[in-house]
Amino acid sequence: MVRFKNRYITVEIVCPTVSEKTPLQLKPGIFHSTVLHKVQQIHGDFGVAAIKSGFLTKYCNESTRIAIIRVRHGPHRFVTSSLPFVKTIGKLNVRLNTLHVGATLKHTFKFIQKFQRAYLDARWVKLKTPEERQQLEQAVLDFTKTDVKINIENIT
Questions:
Q1: What is the pLDDT of residues 78-93, one digit of tens each?
Q2: pTM of this structure
Q3: 60: domain range?
Q4: Is 1 a member of any domain?
Q5: Could you say which of 45, 69, 110, 127 has the lowest number of CB atoms within 10 Å?
């Protein structure tokens, strides 16, 4: 039996036209098709055929603007080289920053937790009431928008 290795690419979606306080109206399917279309434009049919079998958007948080893409090891280079060229997703003007490329989903979620904790610390200074802080913390640390059945408490 052959074991397929995957890579998990953590992407930050930067949208200068939408305020950081409002969540993006971004669905994983639209994000997925946009990245696939950009790989088609840059690498052609060969690039699409190479990534198609293991390509999946695992996680997309509209509040923190973080997404995780799963792709097979090897062809993941087609995706990582195409991400900086994505300029629009749907009707949004965006810029995609690759934050992390990991071998396991567990380590990718650990990285996201550290990244989002730093994000929370930077944003808490601007909030005035404890209720606003609690709402922001729930939105940032919400990993339930993923189709992965993983227990976050067991990660740390």
A1: 999 999 999 999 888 9
A2: 0.80
A3: 6-154
A4: no
A5: 45
